Amino acid sequence: MEENTKLWTKNYVFLLIGSVLLYVGFMIFMPTLPAQILALGGTQVQASLAVGLFSVVALLTRALAGGWNDRFGSKILILIGFVILILSTANFYLAGTVALLLALRLVQGAGWGIGTTSIATAVSLLVPPSRTGEGIGFYGLTTALGLSFAPIIAILIMNYFSFNTLITFSLVTLTAVFLLLTQLKVPRSKAAHTPHEKPKMIARSALLPAFLCFLMAIPLGGIQTFMMVYGQEELHISSSWIFFVGQGIMVLVSRLFAGRLYDEKGHKYVILPGFVAMVIGIILLSFAGGAGMLFISSLFFGLGYGMTQPSLQALAIDRAAPHDKGAANGTFLSGMDIGMAVGSFGLSIIATFFSYAVMYRTSIMALIIFIFIYWFKLGRKRAV
After folding, report:
1. pTM of the predicted model, to two decimals?
2. Which of 331, 341, 302 is nearest to 116 (CA)?
3. What is the pLDDT of residues 163-192, one digit of tens each?
4. Residues above pLDDT 70, as percent of the chain
5. Residues sharing a CB contact under 8 Å with residue 162, sequence separation 6 or more, in sequence order
6. Using DSSP, how many helices (H) and how many strands (E) does the chain show?
7. What is the total count of domains within the chain?
8. What is the DSSP letter of 106?
9. Is residue 207 part of a domain?
10. What value does the mean pLDDT take over residues 295-310?
11. Does residue 196 form part of some domain?
């Protein structure tokens, strides 16, 4: 019985370390690739494609990777995803044209979709069922920390060094994680598929949590993509990276209680206050007048995001059959990818005609839709 409830195993720790370094090593390109494309003579539309292209390809590969995990096992697919990421990133050194850079971004999207879906599936297979909220919560912490600290590292490297230095940092990080995860041991999914059955592309049980994650990721996409520009053009500060520091701090704080609260009380005791904190954070962000208010807004948003995103992922896994964990993770993470892409593209239109402050206020509509759907579909019920 003791063994079945043990969470902090060597393999689980390996996955957490690998996940946070993967997100840092990959996401440093999100705020910097658009600038590199412009430096190569590309247009604003082409710069926007750097954000959207990998999301589209990642979405397609996630649909396949989830079922492949259930069929072939997570470890081999994790390593395949990393090989694709490492090779495509290494070719950035040779990308002297916008077309080649965008083509490599497409390949990166495939590696990202396979790698992240497979790590998430491996985590869900290692976490004891009685500690799903806590176990998935700490995994969600790694992704949130990666999203928080990658922009800080990227901006600092670009300010003091060069894009080639950024590539080298990414390659060293991804290669280190690849070597670490070769030592990984993951149990196989309790597959109920026949040998000739096609791997499942979408887990229907995960569609609702995935859609809620999609809505939550829309304002997140606007924050990740436009924070540096918002700071420079409207707040007139060069320290917009401070937002990601505050966000990272509160994501860590949320892990002190959110996962255990999910397991003991249920998802609504985590998701409802998380929603309120995110809304407060975005309102404060849109009215920020300097670095101080920017930092305060990040504390609220980071706390809310750190509570809500892992809880939704735990919910998707709890609702999935034992043989569909991979498909459930792929479906859920697809919601995140689409939401980030919609946030990057759609919100930029509002910023073009109005301002970034108005853009952030408008993004709250996605969270209002989120809370209505959540409450009427899940929040009023006692069980998952």
Report:
1. 0.79
2. 331
3. 999 999 999 999 999 999 999 988 776 554
4. 91
5. none
6. 14, 0
7. 1
8. H
9. yes
10. 92
11. no
